[in-house]
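Below is a filled-in request sheet from our internal design queue. Each sheet records the structural input a requester submitted and the sequence that came back. We keep these sheets so that new team members can see what a complete request looks like end to end.

REQUESTER: design group, bay 2
PRIORITY: normal
MODE: inverse folding
CHAIN LENGTH: 434
BACKBONE (tokenized):
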């Protein structure tokens, strides 16, 4: 079928054959299908969707558009974790060494932040010298020898996704569940994993604002994993306030190390342990979640998890001394208290607004060419349920460039909702799907 015929068929709601989908995507990677034709196709998918059969074929074609890694030379069940993106979400930084310290190999190919959500690669690069641009032979070797490696997407892995995502970003087709699911799963399955744990965020700081949408996305990705013969577990988790107390790259690295020392905020600690415990069960290093939680507690208490993080940092060119002595991480020139204008209990925090405020400080990107300042960001002094008096700090801002500070203060104050009574405590993990 000619590209015109394929686009018209999908526009009209017809089901495409797997061979037609493969040919269309292969032609797009080669340049024979143009960007304007693929734009028409993604918009047709946005409105018409993809059947389970089509989605499996679409994902497989994206996965096999480039190199699919074989990590069979690394012993053990290889397990990764993917988060759909949130504010203050530094879980990968502590999860990878925790899982590796318990014997689960973690091949992790991560992304950068864009907009209000932070990126794992940007956080890692706040560690002096840390390299996320390793080549595939080094990635394979470190998974085998160290037990974990955290790098960015290479040109040879799922090139169809890399090209397609850039197009979706400018054609209003990013928030389409079949396209989101196939994008995530094609990249993750190309890593050489055997199993995957998904952290699907729900709430003001997430791409999925409702539980129904998050559940649909999770089930879609689980279905794709099943089609590809991979075990996938998903946790739907709350993102109606930033995770932990820090937002900003070096500040989040510091909190991640503190988590490995057993000294991090309860919400961040709980989510990290919940996700990592699922990895240990999938990786056959624990029979039950309770057994996995016990093992994770042991590697935190005996220091093995933090030592594993030192090992990962050293292996990827970073300075382990900056992990041993956190004052050696990048530090902002000054701190500024952003105070509350009235008293009450914190009843809500708009996570997206906090993320955008951090971006205005320089902690994130408004466009892909922006340079991130690793030192800037926020420490949240008040979170949901906390009492605050007028004039007390809601947030401490770590600042290098004060030109947008007034805007940042306004964004932060507007993000906080206060009331006369403390809200009911909410569960961080909303559902588990498998």
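RETURNED SEQUENCE:
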């Amino acid at each position: 079928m000619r590209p015109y015929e394929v686009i018209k068929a999908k526009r009209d709601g017809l089901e495409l054959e797997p061979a037609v989908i493969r040919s269309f995507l292969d032609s797009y990677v080669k340049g024979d299908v143009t960007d304007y034709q693929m734009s028409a196709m993604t918009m047709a998918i946005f409105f018409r969707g993809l059947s389970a059969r089509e989605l499996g074929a679409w994902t497989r074609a994206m996965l096999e558009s480039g190199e699919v890694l074989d990590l069979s030379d690394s012993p053990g069940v290889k397990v990764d974790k993917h988060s759909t993106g949130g504010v203050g979400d530094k879980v990968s930084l502590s999860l990878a060494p925790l899982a590796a310290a318990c014997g689960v190999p973690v091949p992790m190919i991560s992304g950068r932040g864009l907009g209000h959500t932070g990126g794992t690669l940007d956080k890692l690069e706040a560690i002096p010298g840390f390299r996320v641009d390793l080549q595939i032979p080094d990635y394979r070797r470190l998974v085998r020898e160290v037990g974990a490696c955290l790098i960015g997407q290479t040109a040879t892995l799922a090139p169809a996704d890399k090209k397609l995502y850039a197009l979706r970003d400018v054609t209003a087709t990013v928030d389409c569940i079949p396209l989101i699911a196939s994008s995530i799963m094609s990249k993750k399955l190309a890593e050489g994993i055997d199993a995957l744990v998904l952290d699907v965020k729900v709430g003001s700081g997430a791409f999925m604002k409702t539980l129904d949408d998050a559940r649909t996305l999770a089930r879609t990705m689980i279905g794709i994993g099943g089609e590809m013969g991979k075990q996938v577990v998903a946790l739907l988790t709350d993102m109606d306030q930033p995770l932990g107390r820090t937002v900003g790259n070096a500040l989040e690295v510091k909190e991640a190390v503190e988590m490995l020392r057993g000294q991090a905020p309860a919400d961040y600690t709980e989510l990290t342990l919940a996700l990592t415990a699922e990895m240990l069960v999938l990786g056959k290093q624990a029979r039950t979640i309770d057994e996995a939680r016990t093992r994770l507690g042991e590697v935190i208490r005996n220091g093995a998890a933090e030592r594993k993080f030192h090992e990962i940092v050293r292996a990827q060119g970073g300075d382990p001394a900056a992990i041993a002595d956190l004052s050696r991480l990048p530090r902002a020139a000054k701190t500024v208290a952003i105070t509350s204008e009235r008293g009450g209990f914190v009843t809500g925090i708009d996570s997206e607004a906090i993320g955008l405020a951090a971006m205005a400080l320089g902690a994130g990107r408004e466009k892909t060419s922006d340079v991130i300042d690793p030192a800037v960001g926020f420490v949240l002094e008040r979170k949901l349920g906390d009492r605050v008096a007028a004039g007390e700090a809601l947030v401490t801002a770590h600042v290098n460039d004060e030109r947008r500070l007034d805007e940042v203060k306004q964004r932060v104050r507007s993000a906080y909702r206060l009331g006369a009574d403390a809200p009911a405590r909410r569960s961080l993990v909303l559902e588990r799907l498998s």
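SHEET NOTES:
- The chain has three domains: 3-49, 79-324, 330-419.
- The radius of gyration is 22 Å.
FILED BY: M.R.
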